[in-house]
Specification:
1 helix, mainly alpha
Length: 49
């Protein structure tokens, strides 16, 4: 199997283009979920006061 540097580079470029939107989407959803949990927790504490 004769693989050259260009082939490996093209593989990684394609993998990053395919996976980057999934990774960024997961990060955005994760940040949104954590912020929502913090807001819900703060809202619950304010209701108890």
């Amino acid at each position: 199997m004769n693989h050259d540097a260009l082939e490996a580079g093209m593989f990684w470029a394609g993998a990053l283009m395919a996976l980057a939107p999934l990774v960024f989407g997961a990060i955005v959803i994760g940040v949104w979920w954590v912020q929502k949990k913090k807001a819900d927790r703060a809202r619950g504490q304010n209701a108890a006061d």
